[in-house]
């Protein structure tokens, strides 16, 4: 017996080790998590586009070649600041011509309203004075001739000659008086005034074209879009620049139709931009959409959000990442969604107690991507099994 004691003992030890190894090998290991209370946050994550909160477009009001762009993109401007200047040489030439015609028409009107050209008037007045003097002298001579003829000291021929002379002078005076109104015809004055109006209209049109050659800022703000380039030709209505206020921005958030019911006014919003990693802008939902619109292959509602942009880092027109916080509750019991399973049409979880599995039905409330709120069935501190189903059975031993 003694000779066989030692080998037998060794065999028993080996056998016990094999059994323990086998038992250990058959006890599965499962991922678990201990339930605890925490903060539940539900979110809608999507994308959006940034726009100024207030903005206006500056457009060309006439055609022309851009010869100067006195501003740069991102520059702050005030209302009326020139944004682009068009070539106006033709309009300036038209204005100079119209001004010259205005002066000419005004001079003609003044001359006509004064009764005619002064030289002609002076000539008529001098002629009348001379004829009146001649007539007066002829009448005196006629009186003398008639007295002499009555006394047979003169002839009747002298009398007739003086009468004929007086008659001729009278006709000449009448002719000179008739010339005065003929210097200014009614049609001449009307024509001169018409020429003045035409020249004034041409001047006003040229001034307007010169004024429209400068495209000005429609309001105070930042030039966040500038399409104008020196040397380019624009037509009426062409966009020159967009000017807006960027200290507060509007973000159009594209929320897919099934998730719109979770988004409400004043919900917190956070914005990130891939071009500035690590920076977040915060704001709130300002307006919910009133209609659904297509966006590529998606059907979305355009939710308007307001965010602060005090430093002006976020630029209008950029595409951003958006997170809308739709719910936040503190101190609630949370269960990982990957722990919740369906068994015989009921939701539940596998709970590990004293190294063995137990099935527990659970009722949950709101959930997000990772967790759900426990309403009934579980207690804080319990350990639940995570991961996919691996032929778990009630009462089975497991290692966590």
Task: Name the features.
Elongation Factor Tu (Ef-tu), domain 3; 20 strands; alpha+beta; six-stranded antiparallel barrel; OB fold (Dihydrolipoamide Acetyltransferase, E2P)
How does this model look, in words?
The strands form four sheets. Strands 2-9-13-11-10-14 form a six-stranded antiparallel beta barrel. It starts with a helix and ends in a 15-residue tail after the last strand. Strand 16 (346-353) and strand 17 form a beta hairpin. Among the domains are: 43-57 and 245-329, Elongation Factor Tu (Ef-tu), domain 3 (Beta Barrel); 60-87 and 212-239, Beta Barrel (OB fold (Dihydrolipoamide Acetyltransferase, E2P)); 94-207. It has five helices and 20 strands. The protein is rod-shaped and about 205 Å long. Helix 3 (118-150) packs antiparallel against helix 4. With 400 residues, the chain is an alpha+beta fold. It has helices at 2-26, 89-113, 118-150, 156-182, 186-212; strands at 32-34, 36-59, 64-68, 76-77, 82-86, 214-216, 221-226, 233-234, 239-256, 268-273, 276-287, 293-295, 298-308, 319-336, 341-343, 346-353, 356-361, 363-367, 371-376, 383-385. Helix content is 34%, strand content 37%.
């Amino acid at each position: 017996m003694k000779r066989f004691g030692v080998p037998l003992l060794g065999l028993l030890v080996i056998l016990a080790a094999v059994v323990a190894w086998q038992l250990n090998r058959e006890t599965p290991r499962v991922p678990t998590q201990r339930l605890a209370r925490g903060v539940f946050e539900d979110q809608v994550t999507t994308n959006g586009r940034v726009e100024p909160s207030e903005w206006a477009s500056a457009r060309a009001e006439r055609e022309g070649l851009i010869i100067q762009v006195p501003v740069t993109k991102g520059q702050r401007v005030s209302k009326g600041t020139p944004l682009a200047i068009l070539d106006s040489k033709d309009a300036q030439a038209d204005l100079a011509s119209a001004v010259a015609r205005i002066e000419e028409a005004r001079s003609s009107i003044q001359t006509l309203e004064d009764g005619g050209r002064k030289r002609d008037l002076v000539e008529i007045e001098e002629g009348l004075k001379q004829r009146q003097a001649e007539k007066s002298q002829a009448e005196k001579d006629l009186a003398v001739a008639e007295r002499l003829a009555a006394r047979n000291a003169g002839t009747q021929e002298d009398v007739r000659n003086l009468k004929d002379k007086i008659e001729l002078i009278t006709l000449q005076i009448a002719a000179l008086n008739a010339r005065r109104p003929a210097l200014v015809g009614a049609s001449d004055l009307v024509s001169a005034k018409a020429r003045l109006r035409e020249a004034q209209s041409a001047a006003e049109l040229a001034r307007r074209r010169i004024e429209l050659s400068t495209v000005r800022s429609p309001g105070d703000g930042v030039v966040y879009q500038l399409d104008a380039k020196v040397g380019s030709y624009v037509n009426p209505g062409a966009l020159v620049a967009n000017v807006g206020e960027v200290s507060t921005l509007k973000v159009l958030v594209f929320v897919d139709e099934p998730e719109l019911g979770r988004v409400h006014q004043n919900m917190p919003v956070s914005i990130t931009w891939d071009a500035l990693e690590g920076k977040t802008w915060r704001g709130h939902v300002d307006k919910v959409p009133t209609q659904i619109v297509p966006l590529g292959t998606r059907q979305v509602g355009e939710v308007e959000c307001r965010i602060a942009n005090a430093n002006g880092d976020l630029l209008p027109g950029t595409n951003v990442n958006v997170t809308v916080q739709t719910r936040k509750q503190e101190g609630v019991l949370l269960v990982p969604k990957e722990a919740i399973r369906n068994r015989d049409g009921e939701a539940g979880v596998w709970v590990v107690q004293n190294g063995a599995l137990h099935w527990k039905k659970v009722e949950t409330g709101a959930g997000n991507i990772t967790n759900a709120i426990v309403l009934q069935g579980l207690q804080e501190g319990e350990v639940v099994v995570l991961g996919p189903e691996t032929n778990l059975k009630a009462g089975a031993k497991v290692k966590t």
